[in-house]
Amino acid sequence: MPIEDWIARESASILPTYRRFPVMFVRGSGTSLWDAAGREYLDFVSGIGVVGLGHAHPRVTRAVTRQMERLTHTSNLFYTEPQIHLAERLSQISLRGRCFFANSGAEANEAAIKLARGWGRRRRNGAYKVITATDSFHGRTLATLAATGQPDKHAPFQPMPDGFVHVPFNDVGALERAIDDETAAVLLELIQGEAGVQEASSEYAAAARRLTTEAGALLIVDEVLTGLGRTGEFFAYQGYGIEPDAITLAKSLANGLPIGALVTGHHAGEALGPGEHATTFGGGPVVTAAALATLIAIDQEGLVTKAASAGEFLRSELESLVAKFPLFTEVRGRGLMLAVQFSEPLALKVAVSCLHKGVLVNNVRPDAIRLLPPLVVGKPEIERLVEVLAHAVKEVWAARESQGQRSADVG
Ligand SMILES: *Cc1c(COP(=O)(O)O)cnc(C)c1O
Predict the structure, then answer these.
(1) Catalytic residue among 101, 129, 235, 251
(2) Are 223 and 21 in contact (CB under 8 A)?
(3) Which residues in 60-197 belong to E strands, given as ranges?
(4) Using CA positions, which residue lies closest to atom 5 of ligand 1?
(5) What is the pLDDT of residue 407?
(6) Residue 281 CA neighbour count, 13 Å, CB half
């Protein structure tokens, strides 16, 4: 069936909340995806930073298949083995506290917000406010949307849940002024993904840690995208040399299966009690087995170190494009979480041009492209991406010039 027919059926049957590219994938392996016609695409999106191990990783497939054959679901009324194994391993490699498992990044952040309120009620005289940064992204449920520092996303759904305060990102003074007796927690992405890969300064991260400690409030780091090797560190907070009270994880945790996790340190783990939070599916045997397999694969394949060195190579190749093309103005990010800034809002056109050439990139902002390849990406794939990106930019730039020429002629 031609893609046009699928597009028509989709628009008749799916709520129109997504803007999609006109391509349908039927298969994936490693850094490649294939459409129904058998055309291969090189994937520098990874399902938005989800398939860190690459598509169809055999270890995850095996773990999921075996678990499916044994036990799929029992609910959290009972104990299941993979959930406990995963919690132990996650805690051990991060904050050495405890975990709550949810089904997505937004749900992990919902749990974090409830943890903050639980902390405020128990330990800070009923403090309930959560401070977040402008341009942040924490999810699309109402509370996580309220936490998200993007007023244009709030506008259609007012009124927002109460208790969220937004401060300018990377402004230590503003954060210091915002923290008061009602502050339960500060929730931050250390590298803002949706904002087009904007890094916190190390002074800002250190100040966030110091100011929350002084106030007795929690510092919660949203590592939904940055976690599990993406930035060339296992967790982004490690690259900043700080230890938060809690982190949230999701995207690449089970290499494509839906899971979210709130991981706490020792003290913050006391902030939620029996009956105060729950989910039917969260931490089920299949997704936790997949996550455990993912963590083992990251270790065995040395993917954190690989992401760091592949990221360095990708960055230097992108820097050379900045030197060559006036449309490119900057490269941002760490590890394999990088963005290229354009001088004009041509990111969609560049992404479409790359798609036509068989390479997937993410037009995260109107004027920026984000690159989130699987952590297993190699030098040949990076070279191909850079070649295609350069070609796409030349094409888009030439079209722009001739269009400018035409409108000048008309004028
Ligand atoms: C993607 C993302 C979320 C939301 O995750 P969902 O699984 O889409 O709910 C939250 N925070 C950050 C930093 C993200 O990148």
Answers:
(1) 251
(2) no
(3) 99-102, 129-133, 164-167, 183-188, 191-192
(4) 105
(5) 62
(6) 11
Q: Which atom belonging to ligand 1 lies closest to the Cα atom of 48?
A: 1
Residue range 344-356: average pLDDT? 98
Task: Spell out the SS3 assignment of 194-242.
Answer: CCCCEECCHHHHHHHHHHHHHHCCEEEEECCCCCCCCCCCCCHHHHHCC
User: Parallel, antiparallel, or unpaired: how do β-strands 246-249 and 218-222 relate?
Assistant: parallel
Distance, CA of 370 to CA of 358 (rounded, Å): 16
Ligand 1 atom closest to the CA of 107, numbered from 1: 9
- What gap in Å lies between CA 130 and CA 296, rounded to an integer? 34
Confidence (pTM): 0.97
Q: Which helix or strand (DSSP H or E) is residue 154 part of?
A: helix 151-154
**Contact partners, residue 204, CB within 8 Å, separation at least 6:** 169, 170, 171, 172, 175
- Identify which of 137, 142, 144 to mutate to test ligand 1's pocket (most ligand atoms within 8 A of the CB): 137
Question: Can you spell out the DSSP letters for 352-364?
Answer: HHHHHTTEE-EEE
- Compute the distance from residue 319 Cα to the ligand 1 centre, in Å: 28
Task: Please confirm, yes or no, whether 137 is among the known catalytic residues.
Answer: yes
Per-residue pLDDT tens digits for 86-114: 999 999 999 999 999 999 999 999 999 99
Is the minimum distance from the CB of 110 to ligand 1 under 6 angstroms?
no
Whole-number pLDDT of residue 338: 98
Cα dihedral 137, 140, 145, 151, rounded to 10, equals: 70
pLDDT band at 410; cut points 50, 70, 90:
low
DSSP bridge partners of 5: none
CA 194 to centroid of ligand 1, rounded, Å = 9
Q: How many angstroms is it from 133 CA to the middle of ligand 1?
A: 15
Looking from the CA of residue 109, the nearest atom of ligand 1 is: 10
